[in-house]
């Protein structure tokens, strides 16, 4: 894996609008005009007040799928990262040849992963074009792209109000500019991970970015295209002989519960009369999920023993994306306009952080991998997720997609997981002699738009080698781990051995264990499990404190800017002929005290938060004493 990320390097240069403007109007007409800056000044614009939904190239949405394209450079980077070989030219060869070459390449890829701990996460950035509104506001395009690098030209003001540009340079595995179409996005992101999932590897692709940055636009075509490729692979002799089976599920995380969108029941409380309250609750839920996702990434990044996957339903479902034999593609969507600069930088820094996960070669991550119950490693899955950044979460009406392999009849089934109930109930129809559990993580989509209710929606697709299973697949939903009677003793034994692996795992083990009990009594259709006493309370408290800390930090910045304005006014006054120096000294002393008090208060909050994190760590490491 090439280490490409140079985030953090930034340089100052005098502001020269034409040097960084890739097509937008002059900065002096746009971002720097006083009415555009408003009272907040550069970089602190109210993005919620902007409507970014009208772009110039909206017609791109309906572009046809052309499976023969590859992006020069981009694809090369991806192949280097994943060592994947889904070159569509192979599809022109005979099935057997194509399968064989694919198979050996994948084997090579997997063994090299084991040996070198190569990147499991590929980070791709997609920049959308300026939209009509941004152009009409004469906003600058402040993002320039060159191969797999990009530069954000952040417009800034000095204390004396002189404009200048701060450059932030980033490198990622691929950077797709505004001219890249959805086919090319597919080729650079999901297409190369399709063959990998046939090697019992979980694959996830998720999009992240501020509202209106193009997540839905980017993600919407991917499931269908992925499904087409999956089916194509399933029809190749090498896989047909292994009798792979494909499940697809599409579910929604709403209010902390999972709802099957392929069932006819789709009953969450969207009809509430108190829409504001509803919206607030939904927003809080999604924010909690996204914060929990950040916590997990941070925990993995920091080599923490405990990865708090149980912090939210989203992270529970996404867990396999970050551990085990997994490959993840993160698409960071960014808006190019100057007004979105702060959000764009946040998104890129987040992407940079995710990217660093794949570089650190952390052996503990592999321990986590190995301590997963074996059942988890026997199922491949592909997950697709779109999620907004924490501050901007809105939702769009669901879109249901079902994939039929064309060879087998498909039936729909209904199920709900409610992890909050103790014991939780898993209602579903089972195929005889087979166990399943909500441990198979699949495709997720978070849809965001103005108005309406908000939720996380999940597409899921599993492929599983099932030579020892029933020939006939009767339904597609939900994703299931199937275990034959012969397999059960071995799986139970393995679980017992691995069970010292922490609270996350034990829940999963508990669920699996109960699944097996269920099968032994042949009680088809309804199963119960008793999760381990949760640490969710602590995690929730920490997530809330984190939110409070970040809010306090923002407030401190706003206060500081206000104070700086006062200082500048003071300076302007003291420069006037005949000004009173006593007055200046008194006011300056007062202003500086306020500044110091703000900093001290923020530092205290930060120290409290650090202490809490430490406590939690100690608590969790104590809990991990082998039973
Ligand atoms: N690369 C692109 N090329 C052309 N149009 C785009 C592109 N990306 C996004 N758009 C357009 O920008 C608008 C906003 O995109 P989209 O709805 O995908 O954003 P989003 O990130 O999903 O927003 P939200 O989080 O609010 O749901 C849409 O009108 C979409 O068609």
TrEMBL record:
Primary residence: cytoplasm
Domain Kinesin motor: 120-279, 280-357
Comp. bias (Basic and acidic residues): 484-501
Coiled coil stretches, renumbered: 543-574
Highest taxon listed in the record's lineage: Eukaryota
Pfam families the UniProt entry points to: Kinesin
Name of this protein: Kinesin motor domain-containing protein
Record lineage: Eukaryota, Viridiplantae, Streptophyta, Embryophyta, Tracheophyta
